[in-house]
Amino acid sequence: MTKIKILVVEDESIVAKDIQKSLEKLGYEVPATASSAASAYEKLEQILPDLVFLDIKWKGEADGIHIAEHIKEKYNIPVIFLTSYVDQDTLDRAKVTEPYGYIVKPFNDSDLKTTVEMALFKYSRDREVRESQHRLANALAMVEECIVVMDTEGRVSYLNEKAENMLGYSTATAMGMDAFSLFSIEAEGGMLLKKEALMEQMRKNESIENKECHVLIKRDNSSLSVVVSASSIHDEKDQFLGCALIISDKQSAKLKTPDVENQVTLLDNQIIQNSFFVKKGSMLVKVYLDNISWIQAMDNYVIIQTNSDQFVIHSTMKDIEMKLPVAKFLGVHRSYIIPLDKINVLDENTVLIGDKTIPIGKSYKETFMARLNFL
Q: What does DSSP say about strands 301-306 and 310-314: parallel, antiparallel, or unpaired?
């Protein structure tokens, strides 16, 4: 197992060596220490550590906070600040760099180990959330409806291009703003959909399906007659991340009934068993089953990942699973269907397809294991 690499940045060489020895005794690799900002930047390039211990107080112009800002901007490596006494102004500046921990001098080996393990765990979870949000953003950029993605507090975390045009804000400008400060939603009978009620419903994983509403765009006071749906967003470990609000014009919603796209897909499966059609833009593209790497649910959409492309369709995992040959494909998680012949490596809780790690749900494990051949 590869050891965790840690860089210690401390201008007092005796303290730096002491920390280095303590960390190595605990089983971590400390290939270098640095006693200046220039040395720290050089060592970062050379060793690309997994974690940085960084003294918050330095002599000279560039203190630890300046170095932490550089690390966050260029490397996105977790930082733990070493502190003794820190005044409130310095502490406030340090918070902006979002460190993954503080350790107060003097400290013992137990303090070091606990702080490192907690920092690495938190960083790992944060990275999973970021990757999940990135995949969601990539998927939703391709769909035709207006998509407003909110975090757990109802703040905007993503707008697709259609939503940007509707609201008059870019994602970069709107990010972090209260979504309901940009628009309001009035359901039948003049009932306003309140942010608090929506988020409570999403936390309970209760979706909203094709509800006819009026949306008031607050930037220009325009009103739109639309169909609204909403789904909660979870990561692969079922952690609640927020929700996606899907706004369609009524005409588009009517065109989806009956679902022409799914009818074409089903017809193709009946005629040619090794492929099906999916819609991409204005075209129908044939996807061969042998080229599928995995299929992932993303709220009201399904992502089909092939060897060389990605397709996003408005469907459910249940509908997709019914159209796939059971001899080749199997659901291993509520959010994943995989081709069994593409598995490279597996352990008790995950499978690896290419460089993609896919979780195995507890309720799927027995069926999954029964489908595999073992020597």
A: antiparallel
